[in-house]
Amino acid sequence: MLLDGKKLLITGVLTDDSIAFAVAKVAQENGAEILLTNVGRGVRLTEKVARKLPTPSDVMQMDVNNSDDVAAVASEVMDRWGRLDGVLHSIGFAPQDALGGNFLTAPWESVAVAFQTSAYSLKGLSVGLLEPLKIAGADGGASVVSLTFDGRFAWPIYDWMGVAKAGLESITRYLARDLGEHAIRVNTVSAGPIRTLAGKSIPGFDTISGAWSQRAPLTWSLTDATPVGQMCCFLMSDWASMTTGELIHVDGGYHALGADFKPREE
Ligand code: NAD
Predict the structure, then answer these.
(1) What confidence tens digit (pLDDT) does each residue in 25-53 have?
(2) Contact 142/134 with Cβ under 8 angstroms?
(3) Regarding predicted confidence, which is higher, 191 or 262?
């Protein structure tokens, strides 16, 4: 199977709608062994939803902004597996006043929280897990994968989260530059809109998601993250051995359109 023998750390499973849940499920179905993490009170939800996976998985507490938490997870990974073949960064957060049409008024404190948690943390997580990633890198390759929402464009209502995503995409390229010598690949997947807790917490989510349902060339389901999970698993597999610093869209082809196409008939 595609991920036979791979040891993966998966952050961000909160409910069974979470994109990370789809990644965890596809990963297990394809032979991977996984460890889940989430932050604070989210851990109890993660533990509950982990029972719905094909193989129930352990869950650790890790605030991605807390280097001691990341170090504790790295140490557990070393004890458990002695290596880490892949890590999924599936984490995003922005205070409400940094989203939803508040671009011109959002205070720096809120912008800073959004950037730290949603972008800078990719660097913190990758460096915090460097020891086990390097071991897998020396033994065939390791992979860091994150999730973005096409940060090349200004979207309605996405505001400072969009700026943080542009940062995440740039950090992906810089990490690819600096970790390539250890055979650690770093890529980001730009997903179309999915109705998760994070998605629904964006005021006006429907203004973006409606456009997808109408226009994506391949059509798009707001409730099925499986295609996103499959791409993340591909990037963590040996089949992606020479791909790094890349942004890959899993959005039904929406990103390829340059004009406001006539909506299809319902
Ligand atoms: P989600 O709410 O299920 O997942 C977000 C996760 O981030 C949660 O598990 C939450 O606990 C975690 N998190 C927040 N702050 C954290 C911290 N300090 N430390 C550790 N974990 C923290 O929503 P989701 O939509 O599955 O989001 C996952 C990723 O996918 C995010 O990066 C999001 O921006 C991205 N994404 C989502 C969509 C969408 O439409 N839902 C589209 C493209 C990209």
Answers:
(1) 999 999 999 999 999 999 999 999 999 99
(2) yes
(3) 191
Q: How far is the CA of 206 from the centre of ligand 1 (A)?
A: 17
Please name each of the domains of the chain with its CATH number: 7-250 (3.40.50.720)
Range in 65-69, 202-206, 237-241 the model is least confident about: 202-206
| Cβ density class 180-196: b for 16+ within 10 Å, e for less | eebbbbbbbbbbbbbbb
Centroid of ligand 1 to alpha carbon of 86 (angstroms): 18
Q: What is the per-residue DSSP string for 107-156?
A: -HHHHHHHHIIIIIHHHHHHHHTHHHHHHHHHTT-EEEEEEE--TTSPPT
Cα–Cα distance measured from residue 93 to residue 102, given in angstroms and rounded to the nearest whole number? 15
Task: State residue 18's pLDDT score.
Answer: 98
Q: How far is the CA of 108 from the centre of ligand 1 (A)?
A: 21
Q: Cβ(90) to ligand 1 under 6 A?
A: yes
Maximum Cα–Cα distance across the chain: 56
More confident residue, 113 or 204: 113
> Is any atom of ligand 1 closer than 6 Å to the C-beta of 93?
yes
Non-local CB neighbours of 53 within 8 Å, separated by 6+ positions = 21, 24, 25, 28
